[in-house]
Amino acid sequence: MLTKELTLIAMKQRWLEQTLALCDKCVGEHLYTRADFAQVIERDDQEVFLLLTPAEKVVGYIYCRLIDVREAEQLSKQSLQQLDNKVFKACSLLGILQSIGISEAYRQQGLSNILVEAYLQWLWRKTAADIAFGVFWKPHGKAPMGSILEKFGFYHLTDAQNVWYDNENLICPVCHGRCRCEAAIYYKILERREAE
Question: What is the pLDDT of residue 37?
């Protein structure tokens, strides 16, 4: 359920800079570039949903896109097919929850639930994805998104080390430089009847 004060909308060009600035604050500076978000507007296999105030201030975002198993393995630095070959097949299409963030003043209000629901509805209604998937930040040994994902029926597959360390441009808000934080890998098999 969306609050009366906020609107959920697909990102458009005029909110791109605000979205990038919020992303920098939430998940680390330079993880994504202006070009990363600009291409989303033009593509059908990616989406960014925003939460806007009446003054059109971006206070939350979720970035999702379609990938294959090979790219998911590269991102997670895990052999997903070896971990679970019944779920992750070479032909699987995954809808990755690439990034999510809420402005600090708007946290603890259930807004992440609204964004995760928008992501899942996008996968069900606009894509042919088989699996919802994500590699989630796990600073200090705890994945902030874990309980929310489990509420939506996601399963914790495994943890991974140094997933973002090779990105020399990323300034992690915890590590204050290259990111050494753990990652938690979650997935959900998409049942089309759930969308009804």
Answer: 92
